[in-house]
Amino acid sequence: MVIAKERETEDVFEKKHQTLVSTVTQLAPIDPFSFFAAGAKHYRGKRFYWSDPGQEKVFVGLGIAHEIVAHGDDRFAKVEEERKKLLNMIETETDLAIQGTGPLLFGGFSFDSQAAKTALWRSFPDASFVVPVFLLTVTRQGCWLTVNRLVQAGDHSIQEKWLEKERESLLRNARAVVLSDGSAQSENVRYATTDVEPEAWKRAVAEAVDQIRNGEVDKVALAREIRVHATERIDVVRTLKRLCKQQKESYVFAIERGTDCFLGASPEQLVKRDGNKLHATCLASSIGRGKTAEEDERLGQRLLSDEKFIVEHQFVVDMIKSAMEAECEDVSVPNEPSLFKTAYIQHLYTPVTGTARRGTSLLSMVEKLHPTPALGGYPQDVAVRKIREMEKLDRGWYASPLGWMDRHGNGEFIGAIRSGIVRGNEVSLFVGNGIVADSDPESEYEETKLKPKPMLTALGGKRS
Ligand SMILES: C=C(O[C@@H]1C=C(C(=O)O)C=C[C@H]1O)C(=O)O
Ligand SMILES: [Mg+2]
């Protein structure tokens, strides 16, 4: 098989006796899902998938060339420090100038480093980022493969030869994999869903409303868990493929650690950096989609005009705007929210943009923003403490910053909602709502029922 080797570059990072060598090659088009599937043999537990809305950038990572892990409250600073160490090791660099290629870091954080941890999230630390061995990058401009290798002084050639063989075999296998859209499988798999303690969740909402009315806190996002039991192992590749097809406005992601996989289709951008431009998104307040265009329009108008929905959204706008103003020049925010429609749900949406000041990094912005009042509450510290006290679950990486960073400081993070952790035949899905003074437990419960729909639909099969 011939691979179009149009351009090639080598970046060398030196770390005392170690060097991170990153080689980028342009390829003939390759299907990212097939590449992910081809990686199952040698890299299961060490794969990731990412695509942004409209598939502007699709990444598939296999293996670990370098890893950054951090625990505790200063995890953002620790990751930033380790990232800088990695950057300082650049010795020579010939840049292809194709954003999203080269030694990218991909990973994320847990929601709250101080929350009690359960076995469910045992493979996901407070912060974990990897530079993959193989990174497939697909954009509208083309398709690239980065091979990253960490070499000790002296053993260059052996690893290089092995990787070259491995690379060829991966590409061969990926091109041979023919993936169905999953319709055949959907005949066979059945799954049952269990709402975990819905009554306790409603009581927590009522309690949060009391505390908000007492002035202890302004807004708290409370989540609940839905457990799915399937009759066979959850097929991550098919689920991802269906999420991409069905949730075109969302970021689709999967990140494997050990035998577990965290995946989802989140519409919620947290912050993106491109050069010195920063983009953040306020997304909060939800209503369903109509069955007819008229009903859809009516629901949208209700979302735009109802006082409870406006207040719920405004907390997010105020906080994100002031966080951006603290770090940026020329912050721009529309006066009114607009509607953001996905397959099963519509939200109020306000984009915020700005120009980063010197010293503002993507990660410092992530740290400042997380959690926004959409996924945590307001004020931030009080809301996180309330969640710790009131929520009966381990959020793990749900509603947390997840994304990628390149060596130039560009990258993008989302709030990882509409997601779940897959463990064999089981998935734990998480759905949450922003609770405000005018929230009603029953209506909030109905709202949470909209949120697992993308994941449940993408699992395929039939509900029993
Ligand atoms: C917390 C979630 O979603 C968040 C809560 C919303 C709401 O309460 O209206 C809307 C969008 C998200 O910011 C979730 O989907 O789990
Ligand atoms: Mg809501």
Characterization of the model:
The protein is an alpha+beta fold and 464 residues long. It has helices at 32-38, 40-43, 75-88, 156-176, 183-188, 198-213, 236-246, 293-305, 307-327, 362-369, 380-390, 441-450, 453-458, and strands at 8-15, 18-27, 47-51, 57-62, 66-70, 90-92, 105-109, 127-131, 134-139, 142-152, 190-195, 219-230, 251-257, 260-266, 269-274, 277-288, 328-332, 338-341, 345-356, 377-378, 401-405, 411-415, 419-423, 426-435, 462-463. The chain has a 15-stranded mixed β-sheet that branches. Strands 5, 7, 8, 15, 16, 17, 18, 19, 21 and 22 form a 10-stranded antiparallel β-sheet that branches. The protein has 2 domains: 8-176, no CATH class; 187-463, Anthranilate synthase (4-Layer Sandwich). Helix 1 crosses helix 4 (156-176) and helix 1 runs antiparallel to helix 7. It contains 13 helices and 25 strands. Ligand ISJ is lined by residues 221, 223, 268, 283-286, 347, 374-375, 399, 417-418, 431-434, 451. Residues 198-451 form the Chorismate-utilising enzyme C-terminal domain. Residues 440-464 are annotated as: Disordered. It comes from Novibacillus thermophilus.
